Give the backbone structure.
Amino acid sequence: MNPFGYEYIMRELIPTYLKVLSSAWTALLCVVIPATAAMAAHPVVKAIHVRNNPFSVTVNMTGEAPVKVVRVGEREVLVAIKNATLPKGLVIDGKDNPNLESLHVEALDGNVVALMVTGKHASQETITPFFDVGNNQLTVVLNKVAALAPPVVPQAPPAHQAETVPAPPIPAVPAVPAVPAVPAVPAVPKPETQMPIASTTSPGEKQPLGNAEDDEAAVKIPEPQPEPAPKAEPPKPVKKETGLAKTKKKIKEAPLYIPPKRQASAFKGDISDMYRGEDPLQGCQVSAVENAMLLIKKQLYKEAGAILDQYLFEENPFCREQVHYLRAYVNFMGVEDDNPAGLLTAERMFQDAMVLFPKSHYLPFAYAAMGLIHTRLHNSATAEGYFDIINKDFPDYSGMPEVEFHLAEIYNDRGYNDKALDLYKKVFESKISNAYISSAGVGYGKALFKNMRYYDALSVLNYVIQNDVKKVYESSDLLKYTADANFELGLSKGARENYIRLLNIYPDIENPDMALSKAGDAYGMENQEEKAIKLYELVREKYPDSPGYINASIGIARYLKTDDEKIEIYEMIKARFPENTYARIAMMRLAEIYQKNGEYDKCIQEIEDLLSTHPRGLRYEAVKLMQKAYEALFKEQLKGDEYTSVLMRYEKEQLRLKKMGGRLIPFHVGMAYLQADLYEEAFNQLISAYKLYKRSERPALLLFGLGKAMDESGRDDDALKLLYAFTKRFPKHKSRVEALTRIGQIYLEKGRFPKADDALVKAYKAGVDTLEKGRILMLRAGVYQKKTDLKTTSELQARAVKVFAASPGENYEILADAYKTLGSTYLEMRSYGQAADAFAKALNFSEGDRAKANIGFLLGDAYQKGNALDKAKETFEQVAQSYDSVWARLARQRLSTMGLAEKMINS
């Protein structure tokens, strides 16, 4: 995110280094890509797709074109497509591919489309493009085994060290003091990468287990149930700025354009060629006409016209063709722009000459003149028609540079930037000297700038300034675009000097406030804070209520010491300029401050306001910042055990949250559902997060939480594999004991007793908490009970009782349950004395009438079966008097049975 207001929106997507090399690449590609037969129309690149497995780039086109792949660096690959064009609104799919760092597309000179691909795994030694002629589809495989390669973590670029640039003397501009600089603000992070994972089981479905201890790679992840969440919308491409540090590292100064070797010519390349050359009069040797030609060459058009009018008045029979065309020419050249009647008279004269001499040598000059006349009359459609006739019927016309320049101007005014650029370039790079090279250079530089080819634009514009100083004083455009190109490239010194020179020479230009505030930004780029602030203050003083005022205000805010002061400025911009582009920048700044300070609700609200008032402005950056705020908010709430707050927020705003994409939101929401024991919902969220992580980056809690959700929602086989993967990858994690315990329980349910016991033994060894260790012993006892090994069962239960008893705290309920379970085992073993002893201890620790009545009945039963009838009778009598009706009734039945037995014995 750029710290400067204007360029925050206007920064180009293509990184500077691509443009630095564009000229060299164009020359290289002309050599490495063989020329092909001329086609009626160049094929168009319709769409670009980045794919996985293998990691590759696919280009859909409207036809076949020559292709060359050049490896630029270890991970950078240039795919060049010759004789191809780019459409507006090019579709690029898969830019969130985890193997892709960046993909940039640019149209280079010579109809070359260049794709610069930087991949984390673009390590294929030989990269061969394949073109499917049937589908007009180009495929370039960058790495066949990309999915198996270890991830490469891109290093952050080093912090920018601004060069110390001595401040040059500023020309005497009363209103322009010097100003400081603006440190760059970190860019909004890239969207989270996605990793597709196959799905298999649904809740409760059984599948062959295989080796559950295999690595996490063996886990086949089922899709969320009952239905998958809606697919997140891919982020729309946004214009991003090139980081200042990176820019200055790549470009110190733009080298001057190197023109082709031009041949000297007797012609100037415009309509004045009518009187140039060896025989401009086409063999006419009449002295009056020759004298008129001499006056024309001296630009004495009125005097020449008088001679030609007199010659026609005298009805001389010779050289009439030359006289008619020259007479029309001098009338055209002698008329002023503010005299439309005179211009139309000149046009009529040319038309009369063409009627009289339709096959004249001067015919293209007449068409050119009429095109120029209508250009001066602002009849661009008519002018274009005349110029097109010359292009079609007189390709060798010596004044073609003038025709092409004015055609380029017409296209530029109509917004046909590409057409204008081609014609400007043709005139500017002409190999024959002509009078329009500098003018075409200005137009060419402007067209390059509009195409965001800032480096090339600056190179051309600097050339024009150096080789034709007069152009600087003809129009403000040359200095303005030169300054803007320097600014966009981060060349602060060139930007600052040209903005100040522009304001000196053209103090009445449109938007001087922006030029002055951007000069302040340029000082900011050099960390000259004092000068930047002075210029910002000057703009705020001289140009209130202007775009420059807002930009300067945002610039000043960067140097304020407290967030409260910054918030005050941004709120002022929101209130005073709600419809201005800069209002949304102020809103983003406010959201960033709230995010930084942990005021996540305020951050989210600010972005909601931004998206509702400026739905298209900074949408991508705003949504990503909102996503970060939600992620931080949910993390903070989970840490504070406020999982219900997370779930309430998610249930209320889930449609928006799903569209954001990213992996942390479903991760945090899934963990909140897990804490709420809503396992199916937890599974749906956690599986979505799982897919968005690369395997090596999946956090421990995600693996454990998803494994637990799988276990609780009936996906036992997948739970086994994921929990095993968790225990292997995170052997020291605090949840490892629970994971091993769950593994043991799953195996126990499946009847795989050895594996169950093995997992529980590992869990016991890893455990630290005594209560937890006691529960694990009870679970192990359950394994042996299933195996009908009651002796081992009772031994493990007895150990568990001792562990519970040794645990700190009053664990009466746990001890009561443990003794009760141990007593039941002894009862099953017919060890009635030990059973009675265990039940008696359980009774001592039990609480509540029902629990006491239940254990009391079991104790009486143990006494009775052990033939301690007096104790049994006494115990049953106590239970019969309890408040629990069920156990009291059962106890009375036992007493009656015992009484009946005694009577029978006595009788």
Q: What stands out?
A: The longest strand covers residues 100-108.
